[in-house]
User: What shape does this take?
Amino acid sequence: MRQLFSNTEQEEEANIDITPMLDVVFIMLIFFIVTANFVKQAGIDVSRPDAATTEVQEKANILIAISPNNDIWIDGRRIDIRAVRANIERLHAENPQGSVIIQADKGSTTDTLVKVMDASRAASVYNISIATDES
Assistant: This one.
């Protein structure tokens, strides 16, 4: 009987093409990176006051930090008090389900905190929380 396949043809048939599998793995990796929740930081370290009734907020997407010298920080940028409302409106448009969390330093004044809260309400965001540390 005559041999139908040569040795080189048999070796080619034995190779498995893993390119489609690599494509699927790469697409899954992209999916997990895009859907992962990343912890947002307001931009500065704040010494938050302690509170016994601290609760964890899950859907907070607008973090505002107030430094000890009353500087306001959003997304790592120092913001003037007059621009806080516009920034909150922009961030709230990106995620309408999110809330505002204000990280006010112990040394900041209540006046700055109230101005930030008023700017949030003026931007139609009424779900406002103040970040604290557990005591």
About this structure: The chain has a mean pLDDT of 78. The domain at 50-134 is CATH 3.30.420.270 (Nucleotidyltransferase; domain 5). The chain is about 35% helix and 20% strand. Residues 19-35 form the longest helix (17 residues).
